[in-house]
From TrEMBL:
The chain crosses the membrane at residues 118-136. Pfam families: HTH_25 (PF13413). The lineage of its organism: Bacteria, Bacillati, Bacillota, Bacilli, Lactobacillales. The keyword DNA damage does not apply. This is DUF4115 domain-containing protein. One of its GO terms (molecular function) is DNA binding. The keyword Transmembrane applies. Keywords: Membrane, Transmembrane, Transmembrane helix.
Amino acid sequence: MVQIGEILKEARISKGYTLDDLQQTTKIQKRYLIAIEEGNFDIMPGNFYVRAFIKQYADTVGLDGDRLLEEHSSVLPEIHMNKVEETPSFAPSRTNLKKAARKTNFDYSETMQHNMPTILLGVLVVAIVAVIWNATLNQGNENTQIDVASNVSQTVSMSQSTSESATAEPSAVVEKKPQTIALVSSDGETAQYNVGNMKFPAKFTVSANEMGDAWISISVNGIVQNSGIVASGKSFSVDLPQNATEIEVVSGYLPATVIDLNGTVVTMPENYQAVTTQTLLFSIKNAE
């Protein structure tokens, strides 16, 4: 059987790529690319990176990375996963979000509308008392008494007008639909998501949690935007263009990978703790 490194090297040369070109495109260090072509997997940062780097290399030179890995799985180093205790999902549930929203929601306009008649009544009483007091001081002046009556009438009229305006029905407010991220399918190697009502400008962030480092590649509309090893506790982001319709994320170590889209943490597939290399596809629908 032809070695996997030889197949990749021949495909690279047929495409007219040098190792430097491939390093620039995939963000994989040149020494790792040489090691893949020579079958020297011992210098890789870890066994799960071998498969991730080979898939990225193959896809870049026009080969089917998944098929190539399957055909040569017997000669690739095995990945031994330590048993990981089941941990809660990093994404808060929709129920908890709704409860939190109900606890913290305070409708200021509704409260003011409810209390406005009481406030206006108090203002009206104070105004009438002030006018009567002024009339008492000037009771000998007929013109003053006429002015007092006029002022009282105007005050009452203005108060009624203000009260009617305050109790009028508020105009309808157009409520913006919240962004949604729904897992459509997952077959162990690829997970498909649909993203609805995404707001632009948008930011796509990938980070590595306490489980360890993770090799990550992010492509938008089929073009690689960023790739490389994300150290535990670190992250990198990609600003999504207005015409973004599809995002592809390749993770070399899914249990350590956390994905955030516009402030929403993506819920991983059910078996993500037992998966190493994984491709996650996000189809953007109804963007705003």
